[in-house]
Design a protein that fits this description.
2% strand, mainly alpha, 2 strands, 64% helix, Glycosyltransferase
Length: 351
Amino acid sequence: MSSLLGLVLHLDEYREHRALLTRFYTHRYAFRGTLADPEEAYLIPTAALGFATILFGIQVYGVPSCGEWLGYVQLVLFWIYVAIATCLAVGLNWHLYRSRMATRQPFCLVRLLPSFPAMLAGTTASLLAKTQPTHFSIPILIAGTTLQGFGFMISIFILAEYFWSLHYDGLAPMRRRPQMFIAIGPPAFTAVALMGMAEIAKNKFPIYYIPTASSVNTADVLIILTVFLSIFLWIFAFFLWMIGWLSIFAAHHEWKFDITWWATVFPNTGFALATIKIGDLLDSAPIKWVGSAATIIQVLLWLGCFGLHIWAYFTRRTLWPGMDEGFGPDEHVDQSLDMEGNISVHKTHSP
């Protein structure tokens, strides 16, 4: 099931970034405009998420079939990824703060994205450290824990803003509601990362890794703590999952596919992975069945979004000038937005 969900993640990121590269190649000024566009600037870190997904694929499908050399390549790529994730978390967030981009971004949860690559470092570390020698795997696990903690702490403040908005402004317009699932990512992927790294620590950490706690096995304590902490995070992710689906089904008469529906795929995959991992570590058959059901839902979501995206493209309802970027959920676009990012639209607020 985990391999199937990994394939879903890989296909999702491949689809997104192939389209972006085509756009930037054919319109040379589009990337520069992206940095100043509140609808696009926050999505730049998704390129790093694609990098992490490539590392997942190499680790799962490549390393077992190749020689020892690929493991060393993965080691180098991991530290490159750590550097990229750190630069994005610091540099891009600083740019967004400096330009007060949040004042022009209509949906607060999108502000989680600059910290998402850092948050995915823990999941990446839990996969890569397994096949590395101990003297390499321990620094990987420490780095993964560090960046995972940073990303999760940043997300807490943005989630607080999100809940404040729900209480005082109510639910977002239907066009934004698929993005409500972004909130699931921090607790779900943090649970996945912590459990994965704790499992690896049993084989990689010395028995008494913490010198001042020499009476207990460090890895045993770590895995017990992470399992119960992950259950704590899982129920929070489940609450966000239910709020997201209730909000979408409550506005079913307004359904209209656009690219924001892809937000139902990536974060919910983390929720499914966390469910599967908890079931495995507790050896609970009912939880494993729930994980299997979550996996089936995710595959159906990906297939549905993919099919609707192809239909929407050929009917010019998405990925066409003026149809995706440059306007908020409460605005109507009378003219189009060109592909170079130059705004040539007349906007009027909907009644």
